[in-house]
Every structure is written in C-alpha cells, then in structure tokens.
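Subject: design request, 190 residues
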C-alpha cells in the first residue's frame, strides 16, 4: 500500500511543480532568482519522490510467502518525508500568485459585459484575461481554499501523527551498521 501512496504523492508533487511553473511563466516572474529557488525546490521534491520509489523497487525482495515486495525502509522514509515537505506546496503557490488570488471574477463575469475589462486588466504575460482567471482559480483551489486546507491536513496526517511515525521509523530502522562503521573509525590507530 505504501508504494501506491508514494506514487500518488509523486503525482501531487508534479501537479504543484506544473502549477507553479505555469503561474511563473504566465505572469513573467520566472526569471527572478527567488522564484527559481522555489521552482528548484519543487523539482527536487519530485525527483526525491521518484528516486525513493525507484530505490524501493530496485532493492525489492521476496517476503516469507515468496511475494516480491518493495524495500520497506525506503518507503517508510518516503512516508515520513512527504507530509512535512508537502506543506510548502500551497505556500509556494500563494507566493507566486500573491494578490492575484484576491477578487477573482467568476465564470459569469468572464461571460458578461465585464469581459472587455477582464481582457484588458487581467491578462498575463502569456495568457488572455479569461485564461489567467482560469489558472488563478486553480491556484486558489490549490493554495487557499477550504479544499486546499483539507488537502494539507490530509497529507500531514495521512499515516497518522508525524511524531509517532518518526518514532516508529527510529525504532525499526537498523542503525547498527552505520554505528559500527563510526566506532571502527573512532578506534583507528593509524
């Protein structure tokens, strides 16, 4: 089950990377270094998620029933990492969108006599006014709506209390090999 969950979280990470990238390009902020830093953070998150799934598959092994299973410790690390990291996604979208998330016209406004003003005042660098409204409505849903708040809470507590999850990780992870290497290093006399 955890393999499927981590695969799902990669899809969510890719969605936020796509949304942030589209926002940045559409309003012409993609050249700023602080924006690029946040996009780089999202790229790293996507790639770490993919690497964890791949590592769990590459290091898969047979269980006692002869069923091939992905490596649990790698998936366990992923399920402890993602809930905290994913809290940044809506923050980045809010930062990129800024005041563009406030007072967005609705679909009825776009199709009314206000259309000329929407075309003129809400256009982006690469989008028409209605296209920008549509994109920013999606950014609103992904970053500040009630749905977004529930999604953040859902991801944070998906597997349970993160503190208890971290304790379970510490208590089940075999740290003896790395401790032994450290002791060997400390005991060197040459």
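Subject: RE: design request

Done. Sequence follows.
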């Amino acid at each position: 089950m955890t393999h499927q969950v981590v695969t799902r979280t990669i899809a969510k990470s890719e969605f936020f990377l796509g949304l942030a990238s589209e926002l940045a390009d559409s309003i012409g902020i993609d050249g700023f270094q602080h924006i690029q830093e946040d996009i780089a953070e999202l790229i790293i998150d996507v790639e770490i998620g993919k690497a964890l799934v791949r590592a769990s598959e590459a290091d898969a092994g047979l269980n006692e029933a002869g069923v091939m299973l992905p490596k649990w410790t790698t998936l366990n690390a992923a399920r402890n990492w993602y809930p905290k990291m994913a809290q940044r996604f809506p923050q980045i979208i809010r930062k990129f969108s800024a005041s563009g998330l406030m007072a967005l016209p609705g679909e009825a406004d776009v199709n009314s006599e206000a259309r000329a003003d929407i075309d003129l005042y809400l256009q982006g660098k690469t989008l028409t006014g209605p296209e920008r409204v549509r994109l920013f409505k999606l950014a609103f849903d992904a970053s500040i709506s009630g749905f977004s708040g529930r999604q953040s809470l859902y991801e944070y507590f998906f597997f349970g209390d993160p503190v208890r999850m971290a304790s379970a990780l510490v208590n089940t992870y075999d740290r003896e090999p790395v401790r032994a290497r450290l002791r060997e290093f400390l005991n060197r006399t040459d």
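The longest helix spans residues 2-27.
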